[in-house]
User: Fold this.
Amino acid sequence: MTIPNIVGAGLIVIGAGLGIGKIGGSAMDAIARQPEATSKIQTAMIIAAALIEGIGFAALFAA
Amino acid sequence: MRRKLSLLAILVALLIGSAASANDNHPHEGGHAGTQSKKDSPEKVKSFIKHHLKDAHYFELFHGAKMPLPIIIWDEGFKGFSSSDFIKVEVKEVRAADSTITFQKLGINDTVAKENKDYLYESQTSGYSLFHGKIIAAKHADIQLKLNKDGKKKLVSHSALLDFSITKTVIMTFIICVLLFLAFRALSSSYRKGPIPSGFVRLLEPLVLFIRDDIAIPNIGEKHYKKYMSYLLTVFFFIWFVNLAGMTPLGINITGNIAITLSLALITYLITQFTANKNYWGHIFWMPGVPVPMKFVLMPIELLGTIIKPFSLMIRLYANITAGHVVLMSLIGLVFFASNLFSLGAFFGLTLFLGVIELLVAFLQAYIFTMLTALYFGAAVEEHHDEH
Assistant:
């Protein structure tokens, strides 16, 4: 692993972390507002998080 | 009570056995030699993790308890022999001026610098050898490596042979399949006796209902979900059981093997394409509701999208499980470098914590794979709806 690779991997992790954090935070807000829709929100949250994670891993393999 | 006690006794015996065999590794280290062992142990842990992530031609429960597995290769006809036929040969690298590397067998008294030392397994009865997990139709004297510009060694190609061996991954996959068959066989036969399953299989019923009510019906729809249920259930329980088996100390890593996730994603892709209706293809080749020039732009993008979807399924499962295993094994490796009791406790606690997280990930990845598969199936069978 060279230094550009390590920096790239770090950037990917920061980006993916920010993305998943935003999704999680928004889902928390939404659940707090509408607790009766918890299961639907959770499903949508997990799908969105999984998509970001997939891209993050693909980028990590490239780095 | 007696059963519990005997179980406990077996566990303790196993623990002591593995601890004793771990000690056998370094019979002469300790005391002053401790500094030496500390110096090279990170590399040992690293190579151990690397070996764990790879497939193997033997099944090793703990150090010293190696079970050979059959090797089946196609080299102008099928040939089979046991992997216990392979014996270890230590070699030294000889580098020529044109950056090719050949091997020379090491004598007992020869001492070579560590970076020039390598090893491979040679078959005693046939002309094959096992070089870092790869079967080659050559003995050590005929193997040639080439040193690339980036410092990596690459095998100079030998005669092509196909490896159909029953490796560690394959045999564990078989075992998981049998386990799944027995469990669900018991579940289905228990419905013949009455409406409520009894015993262990009662655990499986809510999960089956969960797949049907929370994954299949919302994503595929009331009308079409039934024909996909068998695949969704199979893929969910297969991935989940396999992930859980990876958390046992048996040292197996099935879904962290890209060939397995590739096959699973490929089945999803094929089912999606072959059960898709007119509406689905219409959305790919002639997107309704957009201007005509845009339809031509969208066509290759949508076509590429059908391949990217299963590709991301493959990468996600593989990378998640691999990353989980690497982190967990690195933390377990750290326990051996703990210099005081506090750090030992901290590493142990961290390992336990991540182990529990990995149990969650095992379920979550199976859930996500099934969920996204259902989503793609749903897109394939969606009925035409009028333009708004």
In short: The radius of gyration of chain A is 15 Å. The interface with chain B takes residues 39, 43, 46-47, 50-51, 53-55, 57-58, 60-61 of chain A (CB under 8 Å). Residues 52 and 58 of chain A are 10 Å apart (CA to CA).
